[in-house]
Amino acid sequence: MITFHVITLFSEVIRSYADESILKRAQKNKNIAVKIYNPRDFARDKHKKVDDTPYGGGPGMVMKAEPIVKAVEKAVGRKKHGMVKIIFLSPHGKQFTNHTASVFTKKYTDVVLIAGRYEGVDARVKKILRAEEWSVGPYILSGGELPALIILDAMSRQIPGVLGTHESLEEKRIAGRDVYTRPEVFEYKGKKYHVPKILLSGHHKRIDAFRTKK
Ligand code: SAM
Questions:
Q1: What pLDDT, on a 0 to 100 scale, did the predictor assign at position 169?
Q2: Which residues, 6 or more positions from 133, have their beta carbon under 8 angstroms from its beta carbon?
């Protein structure tokens, strides 16, 4: 079982995706757990301030270090150091891939995902927490919630038992390939679109060969 600890100002974004379909089932079967921590709950001042203006000037706000460090401390508690991965989500990080998901899944019992907002998170957080900076792709999103969910989802699919045997075999067999379903002929704006004949043949060996070639 892997516990994902998501540090975010927008818990509903995480809940609404994680509590559906495969991830919902994975939580129910205790393959994964999803815990959410709002930095606001760890802010000390009476206004629960979690952001401030950037040193050196510039537009936007920066998320303050202390509420995030405290939230991560709460998440990690006394867990064994080597089993916990702390991920600082940033468009400038290393590119997260399916291979990373597979390696992390085998190595860690707890994954902390720090989702930034605004102009990002005070850079000292990375140093204090020895967090690794990871990106989900070469583009800039409005917040770290989607990146956190991408990593959570990709890792969960690698945990034995999360995908049913059938789903898992299908993933290996047809991953990345064109897929089709009924009807055999789909008519759109007067033109007919056919399913490749070989897929209707029932010859599994030939179908596999066709898909591999594709
Ligand atoms: N100007 C900031 C910069 O260049 O890093 C942009 C910050 S972005 C608007 C706000 C937050 O979204 C970031 O702190 C990060 O947590 C998250 N984020 C945006 N794009 C991301 C990506 N491609 N991968 C991972 N996290 C990303």
A1: 60
A2: 88, 89, 90, 92, 93, 94, 126
